[in-house]
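Kindly draft a sequence, keeping tokens residue-aligned:
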Amino acid sequence: MFWDKNQVVCSYGILFESLSQNKRMPEGPSIILMKETLQPFAGQQVTEVSGNAQFEKDSFIGQTILEIRTFGKQTYLVFEKAAIRIHLLMFGSYSVDEQTKPDKSLRLALFFSTGNIYFYTCSVKSVPIEYLSAIDWEADVMSDQWNPKKAEEKLKSNPKMMVCDALMNQDIFSGVGNIIKNEVLFRIGVQPESLLGNLPAKKRKELIAEARNYSFDFLKWKREFVLKKHWLVHTKSVCPVCGQKLVKKQTGVGKRRSFYCEKDQKLY
């Protein structure tokens, strides 16, 4: 079974997006939305900083955000001399212009003449500019630099890895999270505990293609506030194709929740 994305039947505010409300790690499409919300601050100079993140925050006062880049689930605020890396982890969130959470949750606040950015309960680190050149940008499934051939080589080199672990591996599919994993595997009709080495070449290519396709569907539906309405198996109990009860199981090395149909998804 292969699901055409056209056959399968954002939630973010201008001032605030809480990515912790659903208590799961945000996936690549949500980080793209965060970037779009923060984009007006590109070209703006920092006038003040605060927060409990442990790095030389004051060194960024007077510096200008040159660009905002994303890599999978990470966001980089790029300055001339260094970058600030933001990873929202499981419970992170952010707000613009208004501090919406207490100081104990405030990891970083950046103040500008045009407004303010606040990051809460997340990982915030300063990294040298050189760090950015070491990132494999071609591994980001939503990037224009995405390289499916490189992804395929990585899959081929890990024949004993389960497909559920492969999809969640940020070195192979940066930005893919548990929702995308479950939906992609249902689209291509593959059970999560299948081994990469057992996948036919056609299925391997479908896996790579749908990881990207679904990520952009996710982004589109998130913008339209209808993401959950389009979930076929994630958190569901019945297969939308055959009506059989779905399996809910922790799979792979990471023991993440998988939802799948034993009839319509094949174990390789």
In short: The radius of gyration is 20 Å. The first helix runs from residue 28 to 38. DSSP finds six helices and eleven strands in the chain.
